[in-house]
Write a structure and sequence with these properties.
Helix content is 32%, strand content 22%. The chain has four domains: 83 residues, GIY-YIG endonuclease (3-Layer(aba) Sandwich), CATH 3.40.1440; 180 residues, Rossmann fold; 224 residues, no CATH class; 87 residues, BMC (bacterial microcompartment) domain (Alpha-Beta Plaits). It is globular, with a radius of gyration of 28 Å. It is of the alpha/beta class. Helix 2 crosses helix 9 and helix 18 runs antiparallel to helix 19. The chain binds a DNA duplex through strand 1, strand 2 and strand 3.
Length: 677
DNA sequence: AGCACGCCGACT
DNA sequence: GTCGGCGTGCTC
């Protein structure tokens, strides 16, 4: 009787509609009809009428209340789709906060957090007998990873930046992985042993393979779950449902794994937070690091950023006291030698652009095992230039850079793909092209000649190789695609440093250091790494292994210039009037400054807004209000004869790492920039 | 997104 | 007087 009374009074369902429309990004109230009273519980999927839109929408029931805040008459909840409470209160709170912080829709974040329903998978999961009795987990310690501090951090919900041991190790099963993977796995055992779950986020699949190998060596298989975008829908949903169970798990995945509904979350660990793959490509484009920081704050779990180098973002958090530093228990100093670009005496080595010292080192190392050669990027010849005047070759249609995909292919545009069959230089009318820069394929040919008789292995985006054996071989890999060698590489040659450093980007320095540090960490103990053709602060940061000092100096520069991550930024894109209004709406906020607006080649304009972290909430809510306003009040199109589709009215993107790079890459500015000498 | 509501021009 | 144009706004 008391129960039925309770049901009678709690008749309002507050529902999040599954829609990307910003104006629908709030809770809608519905009456719960008596027949649905028992099924209508928080977190379940529901269907609700949207009268004005004349349709039935999918939604998620957020809460059940006595009364809503809506004055009119409520429509009835149409149905409860399934009894599974897929959206937990913690994940809902996280989605709302993360969306607000990025001026986006909560339902866009929820879509990352809750995979599509798979009826068969769900039925199978519901039919399973609960409580199969999970095996106990034993903690594991790894050398030089301070287990006392790790355990204490997990117990107290501490935020750490972990400087990983720069070595490779063999895990039971014979697989060689980066030491970092065993550190993450060990941290996970501490979380699970004290009855909590661990979320482990890695940027890409090759990292995930290593981490899974390390985890399987220390945890029972049923305690490890993968949750990533590469899985099929049923697999993903099965893994997601497993997280909803009450057995603590190690949940491994890339970016959106930070939104997993982990039971009693004890730890979030992120590997290599500087890797751009941690940026979510879907609106509202939230970085794994930021989502993790928000979640850590709300749930009080431990948070570890593990890496071989330090991003400026993490350095900032260290400097404001938000993160503590955990270094290896014993100091590691990989042997790194920067070498000048002077060519080798040996003609063949010179052709492969290897300085004599590097060539000698590689030759000697090849007697004992594999040698890693890191090169810049995939494709046969990344850039083509005019053979007579040297100006880089541009597409006639779109001004994009021309390149070659293989030795015999026709030059093609890197932007629009158009084949450049009858190219002539816009500067000198020359018609002959010359290769500029090298790549894995081209380097392999040259090195093959310089080291006759040596086995050559190529690893790049198209030829992914995860591991190589301990036998002598030249392993030529594009940065980020380096295989792990059994026992480590006997030497590492970082060949295209000069070209990597020449890339125009705000983050070149820290990116290069990250690529190099990750490669150096694959070397065998005592093996030499050679950085070719780069000097200055970057080279000495690598050689002295003082990566935090480099990040500190870099951050100081950004502070001076008011560039991220010293400040936050948001790009505001849309029509002239909409961007203008958006900029005005935030003009009163303290210490906000606006760059632009500038015209875009695609039409419309873009402004970059800079502001201090403390003003983030105010900026986000003002810009969000403008987004909603522009979405609801449709402006009339001027000059109707141009039968062009309406522009997206107003787009806001927060913390886009490329904001300052892309200015130069937009149409006119890029085309008119003089070629590098 | 869809769909209704509403306030101006040509019609019976 | 009234039918319907699409510009404007709303969705519990």
């Amino acid at each position: 009787m008391a129960a039925s009374e309770a049901f009678l009074s709690r008749t309002v369902a507050r529902v999040l509609i599954d829609s990307p429309l910003p104006q629908l990004d709030r809770l809608f109230d519905y009456r719960i009809p008596a027949v649905l009273a028992e099924a209508a519980v928080p977190g379940v999927r529901v269907r609700v009428p949207l009268r004005s839109a004349g349709r039935v929408a999918d939604g998620l029931l957020i809460e059940v209340a006595d009364t809503g805040d809506f004055a009119g008459t409520l429509s009835d909840l149409e149905s409860v789709v399934s009894p599974v409470q897929v959206l937990t209160p913690e994940v809902w709170a996280l989605a709302r906060r993360v969306a607000d912080r990025a001026a986006g829709s909560a339902s866009d974040v929820v879509r990352l957090a809750v995979p599509k329903r798979q009826v068969r998978v769900e039925k199978a999961w519901l039919a399973e007998v609960a409580g199969a009795g999970a095996e106990p987990v034993h903690t594991v310690d790894v050398p030089d990873f301070d287990s006392t501090r790790v355990e204490a951090a997990i117990a107290s919900g501490t935020r750490l930046v972990v400087d990983a041991v720069p070595q490779v190790v063999e895990v039971p099963g014979g697989r060689w992985v980066g030491h970092w993977a065993t550190e993450m796995a060990a941290a996970a055992t501490h979380a699970l042993a004290r009855g909590g779950s661990a979320i482990l986020a890695v940027p890409d699949y090759r990292d995930q393979e290593q981490l899974v190998a390390a985890l399987e060596a220390v945890l029972p298989p049923e305690r490890v779950v993968h949750l990533d975008a590469r899985q099929s829908n049923p697999d993903r949903y099965r893994a997601f449902l497993a997280c909803l169970g009450d057995t603590p798990l190690a949940i491994v995945g890339n970016r959106s794994v930070v939104y997993a509904p982990a039971e009693r979350l004890s730890l979030i660990a992120i590997w290599d937070d500087g890797d751009p793959l941690h940026v979510e490509p879907l609106s509202p484009y939230v970085h794994t690091r930021d989502a993790a920081l928000v979640r850590q704050e709300a749930q009080g779990c431990a948070l570890f950023f593990i890496g071989h180098s330090r991003s400026t973002d993490v350095e900032r958090l260290v400097e404001i006291g938000w993160l503590e530093v955990l270094s290896p228990a014993r100091a590691y100093l990989p042997k790194v030698i920067p070498t000048a670009q002077q060519p080798a005496q040996d003609r063949l080595a010179a052709q492969a652009r290897i300085p004599s010292s590097a060539w000698r080192e590689a030759r000697a190392a090849l007697e004992h095992g594999p040698v890693l050669v890191q090169v810049a990027r995939p494709g046969y010849a990344p850039r083509l230039a005019c053979a007579s005047c040297g100006q880089s070759a541009r597409c006639r249609r779109c001004e994009g850079p021309l390149g070659l995909r293989s030795a015999r292919s026709t030059p093609a545009c890197g932007w629009c793909g158009a084949l450049a069959t009858e190219w002539s230089c816009s500067n000198c009318e020359g018609t002959r092209l010359r290769l500029v820069g090298y790549s894995a394929g081209r380097t392999a040919e040259d090195l093959g000649r310089a080291f006759p008789g040596v086995r050559i292995i190529i690893a790049d985006g198209e030829r992914p190789i995860l591991t190589v054996g301990a036998e002598p071989a030249l392993v030529i890999a594009t940065r980020g695609a380096e295989p792990v060698a059994a026992g480590g590489y006997r030497a590492v040659l970082l060949l295209d440093g000069e070209r990597m450093v020449a890339r125009e980007s705000l983050r070149v320095g820290e990116d290069c250091l990250r690529w190099w540090c990750n490669a150096v960490a694959l070397a065998a103990p005592g093996a030499t790494s050679l950085l070719v053709g780069v000097g200055g602060a970057l080279a000495s940061a690598l050689a002295t292994w003082r990566r935090a000092d480099y990040a500190h100096a870099e951050l100081e520069d950004r502070r001076r210039l008011r560039f991220p991550p010293a400040v936050r930024v948001a790009t505001v894109t849309g029509s002239v009037e909409a961007v203008e209004r958006a900029v005005v709406s935030i003009a009163q906020i303290d210490r906000v400054d606006v760059l632009g607006p500038v015209e875009l080649a695609a039409g419309g304009v873009r402004a970059i807004v800079r502001f201090d972290y403390g003003e983030g909430a105010a900026v986000a809510s003002s810009l969000r209000a403008e987004v909603i306003r522009t979405a609801t009040s449709r402006r009339k199109r001027a000059g109707g004869s141009a039968g062009r589709a309406a522009l997206p009215t107003l787009k806001v993107r927060f913390d886009d790492a490329l904001s300052f790079d892309s200015i130069e890459q937009d149409g006119t500015a890029q085309a008119s920039r003089p070629p590098r000498a």
